[in-house]
Amino acid sequence: MKEKDFYFNKEQGHARAIKIIKEVRFSEDSRDYGYMAENVPCQDGCPAITNIPGYIRCISEERFGRSYELNRMYNIFPGVLGRICSRPCEKRCRHGEADLGEPVNICHLKRSAADLKSSWHRIKENLYAPTGYKIAVVGAGPAGLASAHELATLGHKVTVFEAMEQPGGMLMHGIPEFRLPRDILDLEIKNILRLGVDLELGVEIGKRTSLKSLLKDYDAVITATGCMNAFSANLPGEDLDGVYSGLDFMMRVNNGERPKVGKEVAVIGGGFTAIDCSRMAIRLGASKVSVNLRRTEENMRIDEHEKNEAKFEKIRIYGLVRPVRITGKNGRVKSMTMERTRLIYTPEPPFRKAVPIENSEFTIPVDSVIIAIGQYPETGFIDTKIKLDGHRIWTSSDSYRTSVKKLYAAGDCVTGATDVINAVANGRQAAQEVDEFLIRRKRKKRIVRFEASAPSDRKRSDDFIPQVKLPVLDRNSRFKKITNEVELGYDHESAFKEAKRCYLCNLKFEIDVDRCIYCSACIDVAPRDCIKLIRDVEVKKDGSYGDYEETTNWRNVVAIAIDNKRCIRCGKCVEACPMDCISVTKVELIEQDLEA
Amino acid sequence: MPKKDHYVIIGNGPAGNSAADAFRANDKDARVTIISDEAFSFFYRHKLPQFVAGNIGEDDLKVRPYSVYKEQNIRLRLGQCVDRIDPEEKILYLRHMEKVGYTKLVIATGGSPRILPSLTSFEKHLRFMTGYNNAIKLMPEIQKAKTITILGGDLISFELVKALRTMKKKIFFIFYSKCFWPVELTGNMSAKICANMKKKNIEAYADDTVETLTEKGNLYTLKTASGRTFKSDLVCCFLGLVPNIGYIIGSGIDTERGVLVNEFMQTNYKDIYACGDCAQIYDPKLKDYWISIGWSNAGLQGKIAAMNLLGSSKVVKPLPKSIRDVVGIKIQTSWWDHF
Ligand SMILES: Cc1cc2nc3c(=O)[nH]c(=O)nc-3n(C[C@H](O)[C@H](O)[C@H](O)COP(=O)(O)OP(=O)(O)OC[C@H]3O[C@@H](n4cnc5c(N)ncnc54)[C@H](O)[C@@H]3O)c2cc1C
Ligand SMILES: Cc1cc2nc3c(=O)[nH]c(=O)nc-3n(C[C@H](O)[C@H](O)[C@H](O)COP(=O)(O)OP(=O)(O)OC[C@H]3O[C@@H](n4cnc5c(N)ncnc54)[C@H](O)[C@@H]3O)c2cc1C
Ligand code: SF4
Ligand code: SF4
Predict the structure, then answer these.
(1) What DSSP letter does each residue of A106-142 carry, written as one string?
(2) Which residue has the higher pLDDT, B119 or A372?
(3) Terminal-residue alpha carbon distance, chain A
(4) Among A266, A456, B230, B243, whose CB has the most other CB atoms within 10 angstroms?
(5) Which of A91, A292, A312, A355 has the highest number of chain B CBs within 10 A, making it the mutation to test binding with B?
(6) Is pLDDT above 90 for A352?
(7) Would you place residue B335 in the very low, low, confident or very high pLDDT band (cuts 50, 70, 90)?
């Protein structure tokens, strides 16, 4: 017996030896990708396919630095996104299923890894040999910076051209400082630039430097120019003093201006920009701020945390209304007339449309109106013939290639206004596609990795820990300074506690039917309907298993199986099994380096 | 033989019960089921203040005996919470992991306590009294407490104060005139309430916001923006009721502040109706939506919802307004019954 094969389980306080078994297997079978999508729903929900259970596990082992690096492999902005991510993963988290309570606060945990790692933390970069290729990136928003970072690690020489005087795109100019302190953003941007990425600030492509010249001088160009134009509501009175476009309003405030808003402010729209404008208006001295939606709160695209913070700051959200006209006196806005709407079903997404109710107009007094109903890309800088998709830059399906040779596009300029995590994911994938185009082979690939694992050391009581709320500033302190960060982040103890809530869905529990004696001991101890007597199983298009067809008639039982879609990894079945026939495997979707 | 209809009603309040009665009266064969997360029969909510004060017993709360349901062949599933509705599959998911199918559904899940966003961070220290489940938990605590802080206000909070006075408790009453429910208090109404309460030996304060609320050894310390400190054994919160729709959001059934229904009480699904405190009703004449929180309107709406589900097309209207005297001030509402 070699000593290194064993370690002692400290938590249990006695010398129970657990063998560390290292059997690793990789797979590119479509069934295994299908399994991952179904069974690790949070990772599947993340556009960057971040290894969420992996980094949460590190936090519960108090390895914050490792957790940060696991994040940074897929998303170069863990500290930023830990604050402002739209959290599509949490909507999919198993802990949020109907009978299981509330989702894990994945995003807050991401932030805790960034906040609580050592200040001497070592950044890890997997650098490839220099290639000699030169690539230009237009736009230093999250998509542009993510692609620049990926290209630089792949050994290419990258120059980023940014029209503004500061990099960061909407992270710097759109999102307010009370949600995203700029020192966090600066640090994560600097860590990208440290790889030798050149950043040319104040250079708007299409003005002194043309896109055509970039295409001539560089081996490839990625445009990541975001959505810099705000949609107009086409309302009579939109040109009055005191009527702002939401994007313009936020950009002005973030540049140090303090636009006059008065006391009563009506914001039109229900996205990130609208909520940020409403919260900023309160900070600029308004006392009665409303957010007005054509549809309902349920259909807002932002997450609950954001809504709740806005409500806490006394912002009222009104649904089923639509602005009709803005009226003013002496050139300045005085009131706004709105009308009621009702919802009708549409067969295509978003499935609900608001239609105005005739003659339902009413008027409210306002000192200013902020119109934040969406943004679209500016494509005027493109001086060669290019295919567009409406306002957006067209790219071929499942690809970031535009209709112009050597020109790629990523982020909001392709997708329309989305969110940062999508922009980061797209930027990185576009970079890998450019790399493949230049090098003529794939150098990184997503694969499924299997490793035999011990059953998790989670305790059943961990399943009942209530969601750990993030501490926030009290209302008065929030408004003392416009830049005061509202969310305060977890301390070690809270992060540890929240991390323990995660079921670690990347552990696959399987019953070896050949050894199983059908004693049903596991079913007796199971906390939910996770172990099933089955007569058949649905096989999906990719070959992976779908729902089980259960039976209560022993004669029809063909197998006893663990439904990993229902399993919450409590480990009770493993403890109960007299035949020791339940195995546990850690299954992870990872990026494999094909050069290694 | 075609399968019998299964009319399921979620909620065992006046709306749910009058819907069930209407179903039974008009369809002798159908299966009718009421599901409620309260393990108690249909009761008068307005009597809860007297109940928690110990002045009346459980039997005094009840509207009607269980035998009525037996006679009418209405199945009562009490103490069972609906967690989710799948309107496409016509299935209800109960918390204890049972699925219940329906052919027609009436949502009558009433109201839940309104909590001001500024109080959400102290929610775990607050007590509410909106139904049997929280009233029965509150009862022993009220009996034990010597000093009680009440954050108000709504009409229910006044009833509780009245009941507590009979128990000789020390009461601090903090209320918000702008958020008073169901109507904003204007002019000198707040001052009048304070004065009248004082006469009854109750310390009442208008419009002082809660800054912090902490608990140590079962003693709650509440500090307000104006610097007052209140120490009490219990802090109860009464800021009115809002439609209880949390479990419906995301199901596909449209909601805004309540479950959105048209003037016939129908949701965006043809076989699902909503009524009572949980419904937000479109009024084609007003060209606006309304929500009524109150006993008689709920009963009326329950009946109309059921009749319409069975084929009628009755339009719902609120009952006429009545004037109510609350600690010396007159409040006019069209929904709140004066018992
Ligand atoms: C107010 C506001 C709040 C938001 N809040 C959130 C949030 O909380 N969470 C979230 O996930 N998302 C949020 N978003 C959305 C998010 O910021 C964007 O989806 C994301 O930044 C898009 O990234 P991008 O890199 O594609 O574009 P952008 O961030 O828009 O960056 C584009 C960059 O390109 C530059 N550029 C444009 N044209 C040229 C040119 N011709 N030459 C040189 N440079 C050029 C621009 O100056 C800009 O710096 C918010 C957006 C706004 C406006
Ligand atoms: C303390 C108090 C005093 C009141 N005093 C008065 C008064 O004086 N005058 C007046 O007019 N009105 C008064 N009201 C309001 C009145 O009681 C309500 O307006 C009325 O009961 C509403 O009826 P309803 O049928 O819509 O809902 P409720 O009576 O609220 O019934 C809702 C039902 O739904 C059930 N339920 C909710 N969620 C679920 C779920 N997920 N699964 C299963 N079941 C669920 C509940 O258990 C309950 O049985 C008072 C209310 C309270 C709480
Ligand atoms: S419980 Fe953990 S692993 Fe499972 S979905 Fe939620 S965050 Fe992901
Ligand atoms: S570990 Fe076993 S008993 Fe626990 S939830 Fe998963 S399958 Fe069920």
Answers:
(1) HHHHHHHHHHHS-TTPPP---PPPP---EEEEE--SH
(2) A372
(3) 32
(4) A266
(5) A312
(6) no
(7) low
Give the length of chain B: 339
Q: Is A568's pLDDT higher than 80?
A: yes
- Distance (Å) from the alpha carbon of B288 to chain A's nearest alpha carbon: 7
Specify the number of domains making up chain A.
4
Q: Which domain holds residue B185?
A: 115-239
Q: Is the CB of A562 under 6 A from ligand 4?
A: yes
Q: How far is A357 from chain B (nearest CA, A)?
A: 7
Does residue A8 form part of some domain?
no
Residue B228 has pLDDT above 60, yes or no: yes
For residue A558, the model assigns a pLDDT of 81
For residue A274, what are its two tokens? 């609208």
- Whether the pLDDT of residue A347 is over 90: the answer is no
Sheet with B210-216, side-by-side order of all strands: B210-216, B219-224, B229-232
Please calculate the CA angle A461-A466-A472 and round it to the nearest 5 degrees.
Answer: 145
Q: Do A28 and A116 share a domain, yes or no? A: yes
Q: What's at B337, amino acid-wise? A: D
- DSSP class of residue A237? T
Mean pLDDT of A511-524: 88
Cis peptide before A202 (omega within 30 of 0): no
DSSP-derived pairing of the beta strands B322-326 and B329-333: antiparallel
A338 and A287 within one domain: yes
Residues recorded for chain A: 596
Give, as one character, the DSSP assignment of residue A45.
H
Instruction: Please report, as a single letter, which amino acid is at residue B230.
Output: F
Any A CB within 8 A of B288 CB: yes
The beta-carbon contacts of A402-407 under 8 Å, at least 24 apart in sequence, are: A402/A223, A404/A215, A405/A215, A406/A215, A406/A218, A406/A219, A406/A220, A406/A221, A407/A211, A407/A215, A407/A220, A407/A221, A407/A222, A407/A223
Q: How far apart are CA A244 and CA A233, in angstroms?
A: 11
Question: What is the number of helices (H) and of strands (E) in chain A?
Answer: 20, 27
Segment B161-178 shows an average pLDDT of 87
Residue A174: pLDDT over 50: yes
CATH number, position B64? 3.50.50.60
Does the CB atom of residue B238 touch ligand 2 within 6 A? no
Does A296 contact B211 at a Cβ distance shorter than 8 Å? no
Q: What pLDDT is stored for residue B2 in this prediction? A: 57
Does residue A332 carry a pLDDT above 90?
yes
In A255-392, which ranges are continuous DSSP H helix? 272-283, 304-312
**Which residue's CA lies nearest to atom 5 of ligand 3?**
A93
With beta carbons less than 8 A apart as the criterion, state whether A310 and A267 touch. no
User: Which residue do the tokens 């019953």 mark?
Assistant: A511
Evaluate whether residue A129 is within a structural domain.
Answer: no
**What is the pLDDT confidence band of residue A8, given thresholds at 50, 70 and 90?**
very low
Sign of CA dihedral A31, A36, A41, A42: negative
CB proximity list for A75: less than 8 A, separation 6 or greater = A48, A50, A81, A146, A421, A424, A425
A449-501: pLDDT as tens digits: 999 888 777 888 888 999 999 999 988 889 999 999 999 999 999 999 999 99
**Is A235 in the same domain as A340?**
yes
Side-by-side strand order, sheet with A368-371: A243-245, A368-371, A264-268, A288-292, A316-318
Report chain A residues touching chain B, CB-CB < 8 A: 98-99, 296-298, 308, 311-314, 319-320, 340, 342-343, 345, 352, 357-360, 469, 472, 474-475, 528-529
Shortest alpha-carbon distance between residue A45 and chain B (Å): 17
State phi, psi for A487 to the nearest 5 degrees: -85, 135
Q: Is the C-beta atom of A505 inside 6 A of ligand 3?
A: yes
Return the axis-axis angle of helices A492-501 and A106-116, rounded to nearest 10°: 140
Task: Check CB contact of B224 with chain A, cutoff 8 Å.
Answer: no
What domain count does chain B have? 2
